[in-house]
Design brief:
By secondary structure, the protein is mostly helical. The chain contains 15 helices and no strands.
Length: about 260
């Protein structure tokens, strides 16, 4: 697209938005217009369109997430942060809230109003968790620690939570990921991933892959082979099931077994 083509496309979408009598349809068209503006680098204009969408649907968390992301693209981290915080407050869906949290942490890190905004936000979350030790709050706090690369603090916070909620699969997933990043805690990650295979059998393949990759990183090749064979046993007819096994045998210097 050259500038004229971009202008023509934007003008066409604006006409569609104006011509629609149905508000839901008009909002969908405005969202598409915002995406079009973004695609052509017109971030401020795209943010203005999202602002209007949010004005019309202030309680739709997904729109606030999109508006916040566009504000971030436009360099307005303060406004982006406000939108992300409102999106989290509006939604009760944990997966969505954690997606918004990652975007919020991006905004916090880009906030130029204070030198170490992420540390300030971490202090806020620590205070919140002290008074409300809910699953949402431990997951948020641990992700803030992880963003700061404070793996030991994330590990300890989740370990304390799990002492009273031993079978919380969502926290166990995050806990195993953090433990796998701490050299002295990788055996703990192995125990947790194996526990998750029982608690969450639908994701067993993913947990086995994490186990194989961790063992390969540790150069514990034959242990990697053991878990890779379990991946194959889950679905021996699928070619992709053999990828980890081939990698494990290769590291174990048994290339003929990998063929």
């Amino acid at each position: 697209y050259n500038l004229k083509q971009t202008g023509d496309a934007v003008a066409a979408w604006k006409k569609l938005v104006v011509s629609s009598d149905n508000e839901d349809t008009r909002l969908e068209q405005q969202a598409r217009l915002a995406e079009l503006l973004k695609e052509h680098g017109l971030h401020q204009k795209a943010a203005q369109v999202w602002e209007e969408v949010v004005r019309l649907r202030p309680n739709k968390a997904g729109y606030r997430l999109d508006y916040g992301r566009q504000c971030l693209e436009a360099g307005d981290s303060e406004r982006a942060r406000a939108q992300f915080e409102q999106a989290m407050a509006l939604s009760g869906d944990l997966a969505f809230r954690l997606t918004v949290l990652d975007a919020l942490l991006d905004a916090v890190e880009q906030d130029r109003r204070q030198e170490n905004a992420l540390a300030g936000y971490a202090a806020e979350r620590e205070k919140t968790y002290t008074s409300d030790r809910s699953r949402d709050n431990i997951l948020i706090l641990s992700r803030v620690y992880a963003r700061q690369k404070k793996w030991s603090q994330a590990f300890t916070a989740m370990e304390n939570y799990l002492a009273d909620h031993a079978d919380d699969a969502q926290v166990l997933k995050e806990f195993a990921d953090v433990a796998s990043r701490i050299p002295g805690k990788r055996d703990r990650a192995e125990v947790v991933w194996n526990k998750l295979r029982q608690l969450d059998p639908g994701e067993e393949h993913a947990y086995l892959k994490r186990l194989v990759r961790m063992k390969l990183d540790e150069k514990r090749s034959m242990e990697a082979v053991h878990y890779a064979k379990e991946i194959v046993d889950l679905d021996p007819q699928m070619a992709a099931s053999y990828v980890e096994l081939a990698d494990a045998y290769q590291q174990a210097h048994q290339p003929s077994a990998a063929i």
